[in-house]
Amino acid sequence: MRFSIFLLIFTSCILGVSGKSKLSKSLRIQATNVPVVVWHGMGDSCCNPLSMGAVKKLIEETVPGIYVKNLMLGDNVVADMEHGFFANMNDLVDEACQQIQKDPQLQGGYHAVGFSQGGLFVRALAQRCSNPPVKNLISIGGPHQGIFGLPYCIGDTVICDSIRHLLDWGAYIGLVQNHVVQAQYWHDPLNESAYQKKNIFLSDVNNEVTLNATYKANLLRLKNFLLVLFSDDEMVVPKESTWFGYYKPGTVSEVLPMNQTDLFLQDKIGIKKLYESNRLHFLTVKGRHLQISREVLVNEVINKYLK
Ligand SMILES: *[C@@H]1O[C@H](CO)[C@@H](O)[C@H](O)[C@H]1NC(C)=O
Ligand SMILES: *[C@@H]1O[C@H](CO)[C@@H](O)[C@H](O)[C@H]1NC(C)=O
Ligand SMILES: *[C@@H]1O[C@H](CO)[C@@H](O)[C@H](O)[C@H]1NC(C)=O
């Protein structure tokens, strides 16, 4: 399949990466830095120098001596990117967990950063894979309550169109649900029961059907959980999903803020407790999906949560 155009367009919007960094020239190496694991978004791959490669570099420049691991799922970069579209997320979270458990540098725990759908996946990781533990969890535009609509799929590519068609055709049909990543966080507010019954990933991670106490206990071990929302997000619909808000069940005309959703009110996964203990943080970034500048990334994310 023709991924290259897609990759270029998608990644070029992420960061203005070409400028030379004027960041800290401090050479002081802090051996005590908590390492960082990064999970990329849809259409991206672990090692693209224009996107996650640049993020890794930026973190390394800002926090000298820090260990940053970009997750690569699959045997190579192309497989890694394909897995952003076609995979069973439960398997990928398992695979990520195994990679992390095998990495000697991560054994004392780590901070996890997820971009776009990666923001949801790092939360699943924190909930399901507690050893080693995640300390600070950072979600940059992650669809925590799912999405309903894929109105802006990057570029006019074969792959985007086919995913849109597949989701229109039936996100909850087994064939689609089990293989298309976006279907696994497709949340139809007009048919919550279909979502709860048929979804194989998000409804489980959000404890909507059965309540897995381990998920909640693990999330409550976090020191901090940062949720970044983009003011003009056109990928995550509704954008409030990145802050745990969602359409009021049965409608697409009203979006409930986090604190009016069942997820929060019944504290199904612990976000209410995290909120009440001042460990849940919200950041609005002006711009479209993943349009975050180096300055904001350094000042609001890296300096505050990765040091
Ligand atoms: C709850 O989640 C943990 C961690 O993923 C898992 O080991 C356990 O089997 C789950 N329990 C139930 C009842 O699903
Ligand atoms: C919800 O989806 C189920 C199939 O999973 C279907 O039987 C039912 O009619 C749908 N309900 C509505 C209101 O669309
Ligand atoms: C719910 O959150 C909104 C902001 O999203 C806030 O204005 C409101 O006061 C909160 N309500 C409660 C009951 O905490």
Report a brief summary of the structure.
With 307 residues, the chain is of the alpha/beta class. It has a single domain (37-306), classed as 3-Layer(aba) Sandwich (Rossmann fold). The protein has 13 helices and eight strands.
Note down, in words, how this protein is organized.
It is a single chain. The protein is of the alpha/beta class and 307 residues long. It has one domain (37-306): Alpha/Beta hydrolase fold, catalytic domain (Rossmann fold). 36% of the residues lie in helices and 12% in strands. The protein is built from 13 helices and 8 strands. It has helices at residues 4-12, 52-62, 77-82, 89-102, 117-128, 158-170, 174-179, 192-198, 202-205, 213-219, 262-265, 271-276, 294-305; strands at 36-39, 68-70, 110-115, 134-140, 224-230, 246-247, 255-256, 280-285. It has a 6-stranded parallel sheet, with helices on both faces. Strands 6-7 form a two-stranded antiparallel sheet. Strand 3, helix 5 and strand 4 form a beta-alpha-beta unit. Helix 4 (89-102) crosses helix 5 and helix 5 (117-128) packs across helix 10 (213-219). The longest helix has 14 residues, at 89-102. It is globular, with a radius of gyration of 18 Å. It starts with a helix and ends with a helix. Residues 1-30 have low confidence and may be disordered. One 2-acetamido-2-deoxy-beta-D-glucopyranose binds at residues 257, 259. It comes from Mesorhabditis belari. Residues 1-19 form the signal peptide.
